[in-house]
Amino acid sequence: MTKKTKLLLGAVVIASTIGYLIVGGIKEAAVYYITPTELKAKGPATTDRAFRLGGMVVPGSRRWDPQTLKLAFRLSDDKEQVAVEYVGSPPDLFKEGAGAIVEGKYMNGLFQADTIMAKHSEEYQPPDEGQATAKDHYRTLVKPPTARP
Hints:
The chain is an alpha+beta fold. It has helices at 3-29, 36-42, 134-141; strands spanning 50-57, 63-65, 70-76, 81-87, 99-107, 110-118.
C-alpha cells in the first residue's frame, strides 16, 4: 500500500467517524413526542413503555398538593385528553392553557410522568414602558468607581 492510499484511507475513516457522531448527536437531541390522539389510537401497545406525550394543559384541570408534591392535570390536543400525574415541583413556565411535554409511562388510563418540560411562547414582547430592563439592572450593578478628592 502506498503512502497516498494510506492517507486517503485514514481520511475516509475519520470523515466517516465524524459523520456518524454528528448523525447520532442529532438523533439524541431531537425531542419526539406523541399527542393524546395518537396515544389513544395506539391503545394497549403503549402500556408500560416509556415515551413522551405532548399537548396543552387543559384549563381548570391542574390540581397541586404542596404537602405530597403531587400534581395532577390533563393534556389535550383539541381532540383527546389524557390524565397525567407527576410527583415533584413543576417547572416555572408550567401553567394551564400552555404547552407541555411529559415523559413517563401510560398505565391503566393514567400517564405517570417522571419529567415535565414546559413549552414557552415563541413571541417576543418588549418590556412594558417603565419596566426595568436588563441594561438598567446592569448599570446599577456595575457602577464606575467614584473619584477621590
